[in-house]
Design brief:
Elements lengths: L2 E5 L2 E3 L5 E8 L7 E7 L6 E6 L5 E4 L7 E6 L4 E6 L8 E9 L2 E4 L3 E5 L2
Length: 116
C-alpha cells in the first residue's frame, strides 16, 4: 500500500523553528520527485518547496525563501522540511506529495499553528 505519513506539526511561537517529516512506504522513494504543500484556513493549497530525486531542491515559494529548507534521506524513505523564523502566516496544514510520471500520491497532512 502506497502511503505518505507526515509528522512534526504542532504549536510554535513566532520566531521559532520546527522540522516536519514525511515517511513514504509502498513506493520506490528514491525515484520520486517530492514536494511540500500547505493550505491555510480559507485559502487554496500552495506549493512550499520541491526537491528532485537526487536531493537537489528545485524551488521554494517566495514567502519561505531563506527560512525553510527542504531535504530528503533516500535511505530512510523520508522527506523533511526545516522551518525557521516562523511567522503567524505560516499557519496551515502541511502536506507532502510524491510524483513519478503518472503516479501522484499525497499524504493526509500535519497541522502547524504559529501563535504566541
Amino acid at each position: 500500500q502506497v502511503q505518505l505519513v507526515e509528522s512534526g506539526g504542532g504549536l510554535v511561537q513566532p520566531g521559532g523553528s520546527l522540522r516536519l517529516s514525511c515517511v513514504a512506504s509502498g513506493l520506490t522513494f528514491s525515484s520520486y520527485f517530492m514536494s511540500w504543500y500547505r493550505q491555510a484556513p480559507g485559502k487554496e493549497r500552495e506549493l512550499v518547496a520541491s526537491i528532485n530525486a537526487e536531493g537537489v531542491p528545485t524551488n521554494y515559494a517566495d514567502s519561505v525563501k531563506g527560512r525553510f529548507t527542504i531535504s530528503r534521506d533516500n535511505a530512510k524513505n523520508t522527506l523533511y522540511l526545516q522551518m525557521n523564523s516562523l511567522k503567524p502566516e505560516d499557519t496551515a496544514v502541511y502536506y507532502c506529495r510524491a510524483r513519478y510520471f503518472t503516479k501522484d500520491v499525497w499524504g493526509k497532512g500535519t497541522p502547524l499553528t504559529v501563535s504566541s
